[in-house]
Amino acid sequence: MLSEEFEEYLGAMYERAHQRFRESGESRLLRRRLDDCEAACLQNVHPNDHFFVHDLLATLADAESAEAEYLYRQGYAVESLKQLHVL
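-> structure tokens emitted (87 positions)
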């Protein structure tokens, strides 16, 4: 299971990202990708993978980042989390 502190951090990060998406009118696809990642992180993640997930989601939460937009379009986030067996 994710630690309570890690879950709280992810929750705050997602809320901030969702707010950015609402304010900027980003596409539903981006929101769905973020929701997919959020759902995945509520599953069991091995402690060794916490840093990877943290880093990936921190990048994705930056709605203003060109890198985040690229990662979303490529489906990288969802595929990466599938490889960790959390989706």
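The CA atoms of residues 23 and 46 lie 34 Å apart.
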